[in-house]
Specification:
50% of the residues lie in helices and 0% in strands. It has 72 residues and is mainly α. The protein is globular. The two termini are 23 Å apart. The chain contains 3 helices and no strands. The chain has a domain at 16-62. The longest helix is centred in the middle third of the chain and has 15 residues, at 21-35.
């Protein structure tokens, strides 16, 4: 019954591991949001003011999907 131990070890971050391209893209988009330069759509679109909307844009540009919530 050492399964829980294996999962905990696997989930820890490895400091030597490089971020993936998707993680870099999400970081870049969130940095734009924090600076106030992130626009919805193109540069002509409105500036994004919602953090949730910024996350949705970041995940979309990175080609990732939204993590599913755990059901209780």
């Amino acid at each position: 019954m050492e399964i829980w131990w294996f999962n905990q070890e696997r989930l820890r971050r490895n400091p030597m591991k490089k971020p993936t391209m998707a993680q870099k893209k999400v970081g870049k988009v969130m940095h734009e949001y924090k600076e106030g330069t992130l626009h919805s759509g193109s540069k002509k679109g409105k500036e994004v003011t919602s953090r949730k909307q910024a996350i949705a844009i970041a995940l979309s540009e990175a080609g990732m999907s939204k993590p599913k919530k755990k059901m209780k």
